[in-house]
Design goal:
The complex is a heterodimer of chains A (about 325) and B (about 280). By secondary structure, chain A is an all-alpha fold. Chain A has a domain of about 220 residues: MetI-like (MetI-like fold). Chain A is built from 13 helices and 2 strands, in the order αααββαααααααααα. A two-stranded antiparallel sheet of chain A has the order 1-2. The termini of chain A are far apart. By secondary structure, chain B is of the alpha/beta class. Chain B has a single domain, classed as P-loop containing nucleotide triphosphate hydrolases (Rossmann fold). Chain B contains 10 helices and 10 strands. A 6-stranded mixed beta sheet of chain B has the order 6-7-8-3-9-10, with helices on both faces. A 4-stranded antiparallel beta sheet of chain B has the order 2-1-4-5, with helices on one face. The chains are: A mainly alpha (about 325), B alpha/beta (about 280). At the A-B interface, helix 8 and helix 9 of A face helix 2, strand 6, helix 3 and helix 6 of B.
Chain lengths: ~325, ~280
């Protein structure tokens, strides 16, 4: 009797249909990500191959982008992308850190939740809204007020080489500087929110340890907390950078869309994303122009991917330490 | 500051030894607590605590979780100031100064009082930098050589020098739990504190590491006022000279340790130490 009871309870190995189905469907879900990613990368590369083959390294290094003569060099777009993204980071990083430190260290408890929500709402604004705001509000303000003032104050800065004049240029409003500012506002919530989460994850014990040593709030923050989460803080910045590199709609509105090397921070310029967005509708199938645009897309993909990979690496390093 | 390193006195069996008999405490009072009431928001955590804490001795706070013993410990170096909504009333006289006074800078209080936490809390920096943190923050040394010497002396007093001397530039997080706790003690000792507060310093450690720390406390108390919160009555009996028993935010009884554990005057204390208590 006992043996039959044990048999009926324990039983031999047999497939559980629900489990197997679940198992397989999860594999499929996981595989989709990889397949989509790889196919996009492949299509971009294949589509852009003609441009890479025609112009060689010149496709990346040449400063001429001319649809009439069919000569396509990506350097102006790459330059515009890097300058706007880096400027945006330089503006948004300190402010984002300030917001995060204020929220975690100084802010009265009752204000924390509403301020946190306000920051998240900032991230929820569609980029086209930022674009319109940048074009109709920020650009005129820059042209009439900020840029003339900056020129007055910083005109003494010597030009970089013989072709880049920093602030000594006609104040046009739309251009690199305005695009950077709009991007800065757009990535600010990401940097602030990620930094805040990193700060909140700092063990209280660490802070108590520093306070107990007679460290002030400032000494605790700069001497103990920040060194402890340094990698994560860089990760937050790189996440913002990744977003700034690829942002399209808002940039198209305010960058001026001039595919030539910028000669000042006010200069109308173009980013990789804005060039593609502006020219794609006109590019004919099979043309060298389309190949150049797809090649641009490939370059942007690689740059953004590199930045995001670096961000992940930095964020993960911290978690393991 | 110049007694020999106590690292030779590692006896893992120490933790199992019977309580030493204590002679009467003759050292003067270091800290006087007068009518301490503490609050976390609307909740009162301590009620009218009066206590004299002697110098050159170990005073143990015992009691069930939530009885207020850690709160009282954190009053002594104004750590409760860092908790939003916390409030402490009453006088805490240390060398004639009320460190709980509104005009007193809490940072200056903490710089004179060392604190060791339940879980080891080394800073994420090298062993050397951990110990040098206090002296650097408070600019206690004039030269690199002075600082080197102070770091070595502190590590020796914390019985960590022999294990750490070849890896001073390595992260403090790479040490074992017991070593980390001794590193935290060395860090506290580096500013020559008059008082050392310990909040269950051994509860995260194994018996061998606990024996190390207890031996260390025994050596340190010859020159320092030590206050320790512990959940282990056996530990209180082993290492302290004075024991204070707390319940529900009230100080129930305080007495020389051997007396409190053998002949408590209050029934509640009797119930607690014999385990007849919730």
């Amino acid at each position: 009797m006992e043996t039959t009871a044990a048999k009926s309870l324990i039983g031999t190995r047999k497939p559980h249909l629900g489990d197997t189905t679940f198992h397989i469907s999860l594999y499929v879900a996981g595989a989709i990500v990889v397949v989509v990613l790889a196919s996009i990368l492949l299509i971009m590369f294949l589509g852009g191959r003609q441009a890479f083959e025609t112009f060689g390294v010149g496709f990346i290094w040449s400063t001429e982008w001319n649809a009439v003569t069919s000569i396509y060099g990506a350097l102006p777009a790459i330059t515009g992308t890097l300058i706007t993204a880096l400027l945006a980071i330089c503006i948004a990083w300190p402010i984002g850190f300030g917001i995060a430190f204020f929220l975690t260290e100084i802010c009265p408890r009752a204000l924390r939740a509403p301020l946190g929500i306000a920051i998240e709402l900032l991230a929820a604004i569609p980029s086209i809204v930022y674009g319109m705001w940048g074009f109709f509000v920020l650009a005129p303000f820059m042209a009439e007020t900020v840029q003339p003032w900056l020129t007055e104050v910083f005109a003494w800065i010597p030009p970089l080489g013989d072709s880049f004049f920093w602030f000594s240029a006609p104040p046009l409003g739309v251009g690199l500087m305005t695009a950077s500012l709009v991007l800065a506002v757009m990535i600010l919530p990401f940097i602030a929110a990620t930094t805040r989460d990193v700060m909140l994850s700092t063990p209280q014990l660490l802070k108590d340890g520093a306070y107990a040593m007679g460290a002030t709030r400032w000494e605790t923050l700069t001497g103990v907390v920040i060194p402890a989460v340094r990698g994560s803080l860089f990760g937050a910045v790189f996440l913002g950078l990744g977003r700034a590199l690829g942002e399209t709609m808002a940039v198209v509105f305010v960058i001026g869309n001039a595919t030539r090397m910028p000669d000042s921070l006010y200069a109308p310029s173009a980013s990789i994303a804005s060039v593609v967005a502006n020219n794609f509708p006109e590019a004919e199938t099979g043309s060298i122009q389309l190949a150049a645009l797809l090649g641009l897309g490939f370059i942007l993909f690689v740059v953004s991917f590199g930045v995001l990979a670096l961000a992940r690496l930095l964020l993960r390093q911290e978690r393991m330490a | 500051m110049s007694e020999p390193a106590p690292q030779s006195a590692r006896r893992p069996g120490l933790a199992l030894q019977a309580p030493r008999t204590q002679s009467a405490i003759t050292s003067p009072t270091r800290i006087s607590l007068r009518q301490i009431n503490a609050f976390y928001g609307p909740k009162q955590a301590l009620f009218d605590v009066n206590l004299e804490i002697p110098d050159n001795a170990v005073t143990a706070f015992i009691g069930a979780s939530g009885c207020g013993k850690s709160t009282l410990l954190r009053c002594l170096n104004r750590m409760n100031d860092t908790i939003p909504g916390a409030r402490v009333e009453g006088q805490i006289l240390m060398d004639g100064v009320d460190v709980n006074g509104a005009e007193i800078d809490p940072v200056s209080v903490r710089s004179r009082i060392g604190m060791v936490f339940q879980k080891p809390s080394p800073f994420p920096m090298s062993i050397y930098d951990n110990v040098a943190y206090g002296p650097r923050t408070h600019k206690l040394t004039k030269s690199k050589a002075d600082l080197d010497e102070l770091v070595e002396r502190s590590l020796r007093r914390a019985a960590l020098w022999e294990e750490a001397k070849d890896r001073l530039d390595k992260s403090g997080l790479g040490l074992s739990g017991g070593q980390q706790q001794r590193l935290c003690i060395a860090r506290a000792l580096a500013v020559s504190p008059a008082v050392i507060l310990m909040d269950e310093p051994c509860s995260a450690l194994d018996p061998v590491a606990t024996a190390h720390i207890e031996q260390l406390i025994e050596d340190l108390r010859k020159h320092t006022c030590i206050v320790i919160v512990t959940h282990s009555m056996a530990q209180a009996a082993r290492i302290s000279q004075i024991t204070a028993f707390f319940n529900m935010g009230q100080l129930i009884e305080t007495a020389p340790t051997d007396q409190l554990f053998t002949a408590p005057k209050v029934e509640q204390t009797q119930d607690y130490i014999t385990g007849r208590f919730g």
